[in-house]
Amino acid sequence: MLVSTGAAIFMIVSAFGFSATALILIILAGIKPVERRLFTDRRQRTITFLIDRQGASLLAVEAAIEETGLRPQPTLIQRGDRLEEDRVQIALDHAPNKMLLPLAERLRQISGVREISDSG
Questions:
Q1: Which of the residues 1, 11, 32, 52 has the least number of beta carbons within 10 Å of its own beta carbon?
Q2: Angle at 41 between CA 118 and CA 111, to 5 degrees
Q3: Are 77 and 110 in contact (CB under 8 A)?
Q4: Cα(4)–Cα(26) distance, rounded to whole angstroms?
Q5: pTM to 2 decimals?
């Protein structure tokens, strides 16, 4: 008699645990889209652009980013599709949309900077 009572209690506790886990997963899945919409300014954004090796200054790019008040993270510089260009990727923490447009405009003014894109 004790074995069947213990088994029944175990099954009830297991059912509650499974139900609670399923409920938590459903809640977390439902909150994720809301979180993305409300906290877009807190995510990391990546700016990618092509520069001419001879005509563009990375110091000028760094100065343009600092002028906007954004905080650059490590920069990745890769060889471009053509010998005379490099592809630069700069990660920016906490970059709101309203600050990215002025940054893009500032980068466009730098000689040798081309094809600016944003992801994040």
A1: 1
A2: 35
A3: no
A4: 33
A5: 0.54
